[in-house]
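TEACHING EXERCISE
Course module: macromolecular assemblies
Task: Read the component lines below, then compare them to the predicted structure of the full complex.
Student: A.B.
Group: 4
Components provided:
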Amino acid sequence: MKIFLLLLAFAGIAYYEVPGLIHRKQWRELAAFTGLLSLGFVLSLLQIIGVKMPSPTKGIILLIKQITRNPGA
Amino acid sequence: MTMLENGRIDWKQAAWLIIISRSVTFISLEALKAPPANQQTWMVGPIALGIAMVMAVPFLILAKRFPRQTLIQYSETLLGPLGKLIGVFYVWFFIHTSAITLRHLGGFFTTAVMPETPTLVFIISLALLAASAVRNGIEVIGRTGQVIGPALLVTFILIAALVAKDVNPKALLPLFDKGFSQLLYGGLIYAPRCNEILVAAMVAPYLNLKKDINKAVFVGFAVYFLFFMLVDATVIGVFGVEQAKTLVFPFFSLTQIISIGDFLERVEIFYLTAWILCLFIKVIIFYYAAALGTAQILRLKDYKPLAFPLGTIIVILSVLLVESQVELMEFTSYKIWTFYALPFVVFLPLALLLTELVRKKGNSGS
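Instructor-supplied answer key:
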């Protein structure tokens, strides 16, 4: 059900945007659009089917804590 | 080089956008918990303003040398493929800021307004609205800022005026009891949080008078820090610094205690409206900067088709990035966010400026 809704949402976005891009022959734009939308789709799908993705936030927090462990002041 | 954005804004609109986006910080007043974390926190305002203006200098010089290019474009002009990579980092930073802000906004709706609705519902509906704003371009965003900004400042003044009788001026003193260095340190770790300077660098070519970018940045930050002092001083004056530090939303608690006679109560709804609008504008401008930046990195003719795909990525990141409100608080605290923003706001622009001074690719002076 959730996957169906997700597909519907992404299909809606593609339906809204793609015909205009083809009509104006903006192929570069179409490629960028498809690439980013696919990235968004894969990330959402992974999230929905419950794959644990590493959060960049945790990495950034760890890294900064390492760097600032001995602050100069 | 073609211009991706045909809209134009004036310096006042750009300044309003900076003020609104910065005012997001007033609700939790992160500055109260950061050094110097005592009664003189409000004095950090003017010092942080000075430091923020120094930080803005590389951007302003670069904007003058490349009047028709944004941050993403001149970094590529200056450094070629390496500059493109820097552009990718900036776009990531914009997306990240937007996602974190969206998470704040959605989380707030869930905890305070409708606890039984999943956060995702708010996040998606707000993201749809934001996407439509981004597609409409900088002119519409600028005008929105111009309408919301004054209303926002009036709200702050009104709240401060209504609690003025409860302010204890003694709570704000003594000044400089631990020496000036504490205040300077406070300013130094507060100023890099002003990442709106990056947005200014992204919209600089779209001002109707290019040289006005200096005015926009200065007035924007000056007004923000003035209100920072006002809000901070009122909170400390009413609650005292020790109690204020224990509150999660000090300024919000302040609006809750307002009660004039028997007829003026529950003023907090005005503040909440203002705060939600602030967060929403912040989401929009960083989202816009990300869409524009991506289009410029990929050398597209139009950034508008990227609005929805980027929106899906921002939505999913806002869910994925932080697991809990506690982690969100830790990430946005001065201990982490300041240092995360530092390379984007200070080191990279300095490197770009040095490159420009050596290679002289822009218009030199005159």
